[in-house]
Amino acid sequence: MHLRQIISLLLLYIVTTTTAKRLIKPSERLLARQNANASAQQGGRVVGGTNADPGFASYQISIQGQYNGHWCGGSIIDKQWIITAAHCIDGYNPPYLRIITGTVEWDQPRAIYYADEFYTHCNYNNPDFANDIGLIHLNDSIVFDQYTQAIPLASKPLEDNAEAIITGWGDLALGGPETKILQKLTLRHMSHKRCAEVYEDEGILDVGHICTFTKEGEGTCHGDSGGPLISGGELVGLVNWGQPCAVGYPDAYASVYFYRDWIRRVMSGTCKTCHCEASNYPTFGSKK
Asked: Which of 87, 189, 222, 275 is catalytic?
C-alpha cells in the first residue's frame, strides 16, 4: 500500500472515531453559572430524553464512518438528499461515510446509503459558529416506507415558546457513554432576543441561529450534531452548538427557515456560487 493511502486511512480512522457537537468557549460569567448548576449534567441521552419507538422520527439518519459507529445526525429531505450541520461533513471524503436510515438503533440499520458529494455553506464558520449547515447528495435513491420518510422544510418562523422535538443518539452526559437507541425530547423555542441575552458575552449567536431551552438537565450533547429539531411536523432546526451538556443554557441550531432558499438553490443545481464542496480530501489515485 502506498504511503499516501496509509496516511489517508489513518486520518480517516482518527476523524471517524469521534462524535460531534461543537462546544463554545464560555466566558467567566457562564463558567460561574455552570459551576453553580453542575448537578444538571446527571441527565441522560439527548439529555433528559426517552427511548423512541420504531417508526418514530422516520426522517432521522445516522452519519457513520466505515470503521466505527454513529457520530452525527441528519434528516432526509428528499429521496437523494440529507441535511445536517456543516461541521459534521466538512473536510471528509464522501465515499468514506455512510448514511443509516429507517431505524431507532444506529447499529441495526434497515438500509445503508452512500454519498457522492457534500455541500457546505461557503460562509461556514465565518464568523465563528455561523452558517453551520450542509447537504449530502446520495448516489442512490432512498426507498421510503413506514420507517423511512422525508420531512418537510420549515414554512414559517418559530414563535417564542413553541414546542419542538429533538431526536438523536448523543452521549448520556458530557464525556459519558453513548446510547444506541434513539432518544426524543420535547423542548421550547427561545426567542433570538432572549437567547442572545444569555450569550451576549460570547458574541457567537448569529442571525441564522434559533435556540431551545426548557430546564436544566434537558438538551443536546455530543453525537446530536446535525440532528433534527421538529415543530408542527416540519424541520425547523439542525443541532449546531451549545454549552455541554444540558447544564442550564440554551442549545443553538441552524434555522432551516432562514436557510430555506439556500437549501433549495443547492438542491436544484442552479446555483454554482452559493455552496462549497466539503469533499476536499483527495481520492486514492487522483492527481494533486
From this structure: 87
User: Of 62, 90, 121, 132, which one is the catalytic site residue?
Assistant: 132
Q: What is the spatial distance between Cα 189 and Cα 195, in angstroms, rounded to a whole number?
A: 10
pLDDT digits over 196-232, tens only? Answer: 999 987 889 999 999 999 888 889 998 999 999 999 9
Condensed to tens digits (0 to 9), the pLDDT of residues 87-126 reads: 999 988 888 889 999 999 999 999 999 999 999 999 999 9
Per-domain residue ranges for the chain?
A: 3-17+57-150+261-277, 24-51+151-258
Beta bridge partners of 148: 145
Concerning whether 90 is annotated as a catalytic residue, the answer is: no
| Domain 3-17+57-150+261-277, CATH among 3.40.50.1860, 2.40.10.10, 3.20.20.140, 3.90.660.10 | 2.40.10.10
Is residue 255 part of the annotated active site? The answer reads: no
Please say whether the structural domain 24-51+151-258 has been given the CATH code 2.40.10.10. yes
Residue of 58, 225, 231, 255 marked active site: 225
Q: What is the pTM of this model?
A: 0.83
Return the SS3 of 219. coil
* 183-190/163-168 β-pairing: antiparallel
